[in-house]
Amino acid sequence: MDDKPKALADAIPPNKHPKGLYILFFTEMWERFSYYGMRSILVYYMMKQLLFAQEKASNVYGLYTGFVYFTPFFGGIIADRWLGQRKAVIVGGILMAIGEFMLMSQGLFVPALILLILGNGFFKPNISTQVGNLYAAGDHRRDRAFSIFYVGINVGAFFSPLICGTLGEKFGWKWGFCAAGVGMLAGLALYLWGQSHLAPDNVMKQAAASEEKKAEPLTPEEWKKIGALVVLCLLNIIFWGTYEQQGNTMAVWADQNTDRMIFGWEMPASWYQAFNPAMIFIFTPVVLAFWRWQEKRKSEPSSIAKMALGCLLLGASFLILLPSAHGVAAGGKASLFPLAACTLVLTMGELYLSPVGLSLVTKLAPPRMVSMLMGMWFLSSFFGNYLCGFIGTFWEKMPHQSFFLMLTALACGAGLCMFALIKPLKKAIGHGHEEAVDV
Question: pTM for the complete prediction?
Answer without folding.
Answer: 0.79
